Amino acid sequence: MRSSSSTTIQTVTQDFDFNKNILSFEPADQHLNDNGPFGKHHSVHDEPSPHSCNRGSGLILSSIFSTLMTVMTLNVSTTVYVSNEQVNVTWTPMTAPCVDDFIGIYFGEIPLDKACDYFDYEFIKSEKTNSISWQMINLRRPLQFRYYSRDHSCSGNYSLVAQSVLIEPLNYNEPTQIHLAYGDRLDQIFVSYLTNSSQYSPQCQYGLNPLSLEFHQNGTTTTYTASDMCEGKANAWGPQAFIDPGYMHTILLEDLQPGTIYYYRVGNDELGWSAVYSFTNRPADKNQGVTLIAFGDMGLSPVEPGAKSTVARVTTQVLSKNITCLLHIGDISYARGIGALWDAFMTQIQPIAARVPYMVGIGNHEYDHATGGNKDPSGAPGPGGFRPGWGDYGTDSGGECAVPMVHRFHSPSNGNSLFWYSFDVGPVHVVYYSTEHDFRRSSPQYAWIEQDLRLVNRSRTPWLIVGSHRQMYTSELESIAEHEITMMLQLYLEPLFYQYRVDVNLFAHRHSYERSCPMYQKKCVADGITHVLIGMAGQNLDTGVYSSVPWSQYHDQQFGYTTIFVNQTYLHFTYYHDSDDSIADQFVLTK
């Protein structure tokens, strides 16, 4: 039996009716988009006329491209840029463009006859269109915009119609992708950023006054290459596969005072400094309240349908309220082997992650692979890690097998890198575990989870929150393979969580929201675990039907995010819709 230490719940919203429960088969990537890193949204297989791109040499130099004199100029609003700046491209409209004529953005050295070796693109479609705006990211190389049109009454190959001058980053070594993470101790923070060079030591200047950054700390540098990853697209070089990721720098700040605001900047005198940011270190006093933001399955803004609004809402929360940290429980960037998407994602979260620790967990789109296991940074046995006879463990990482994740993000070292670890924040102990790795009783992960839960000091951290990527419970339609994993999680981990009095279990994977009553083994009980599905942060929403089950208190399929305010005796969980930032669901637990 679970300990008699009681938790009470106050339900603030009412349940909805459910539809009939059925099992169905559903393609694993049904909800994925084939998006580019420069803010353009594309449906899967919507790339420019792939048959023309892939026919013969890919592009025939027609008369329109016979000499440079026949190529028009694309005008750009600036020839130098910084990350996140909007660059406008304008041109003289063509008469009757083909529906798949497009403007793409390329590395400057890509040959002009490689029309489809773009990073991103947008179709022209209308002769009235004469401008396109692009949200820039620093890829550390010269870039160029090019306009390609189809030959032979729109049935032939692509020909170059117009091109821009080269555009370049204002600073090739601009400190970008700045983000924070918790270290092993309460007085530690990791500060990470990226540049194009490893020539000089990475540095962080910090202090209690933005005008006087009196402390200084050096850091370490790392990078990775295509051959470091496990398989597939991640092993190939190209604008739609692996590109040089630059150098990732990390500085560990120590001896930080609890609950104290620090100002900082990163870089060095030789290559330049970032702007000054600030963060508040986590409190050491269990009596001090904390506020966490939590979600999963966000992906890249603005191209994922809901990511743009989630990023905007969360950024506002971080800038206007005292947010302690953020929990992103898997399916982080959806890069899936496309290196430039990591650059775009890390740039997108900087306004958030440079101000609050951005704590990540592993999802299927970061890790799952079938071969190359000797390169798997988690150390899982076998060529593809955990691949039991049940479930739908596939190749959803595009071959990355979490290599970009472990180079870009940081965590406490008390578990297995980013795969499973734990940390304290105020009165809360947070445990991240991996549903992409073996979680059965004989596994190293299970042994670690049991030991971590057993050693939690509930007088120091009375609240216990666990999080992983795949759902332990949902009343939404599941495929048979998904349902098998759900049942195994209930079989192996739910009893352990109940034994050690876990308060809240967070998970995602399904692109929707659902919240249970305090429950155990599908029954509402006073001392149960509240399960919350929070996979609604950005990727295409689920449209499946729901079954009528007594434990489900609220569900919907809307984009949003959640906040968790916790003090020693009170936990208030709130789910907001992105559309109007209204409260869609909330509940309170007390001790």
Overview of this structure, please?
With about 600 residues, the chain is an alpha+beta fold. The chain folds into two domains: about 30-50 and about 65-170, Immunoglobulin-like, CATH 2.60.40.2840; about 285-590, 4-Layer Sandwich (Purple Acid Phosphatase, chain A, domain 2). Helices cover about 10% and strands about 30% of the residues. The protein is built from eight helices and 34 strands. Strands 24, 25, 26, 27, 28, 29, 30 and 31 form an eight-stranded mixed β-sheet that branches. A seven-stranded mixed β-sheet has the order 1-34-33-32-21-22-23, covered by helices on one side. It has a five-stranded mixed β-sheet with strand order 2-10-9-6-7, with no helix packed on it. Helix 2 packs parallel to helix 3 (about 340-355). The two termini are about 20 Å apart. The relative contact order is 0.14. It catalyses: a phosphate monoester + H2O = an alcohol + phosphate.
Salient structural properties:
eight-stranded mixed beta sheet, globular, Purple Acid Phosphatase, chain A, domain 2, alpha+beta, seven-stranded mixed beta sheet, 34 strands, 12% helix, 591 residues, Immunoglobulin-like, disordered N terminus
Q: Roughly what is the average pLDDT, rounded to an integer?
A: 90
- Shape designation: globular
Q: Please give the share of residues in helix.
A: 10-25%
How many structural domains can be distinguished in the coordinates? 2
Keywords: Glycoprotein, Hydrolase, Secreted, Signal
Biased composition (Gly residues): 381-391
Subcellular location: Secreted
Protein name: Purple acid phosphatase
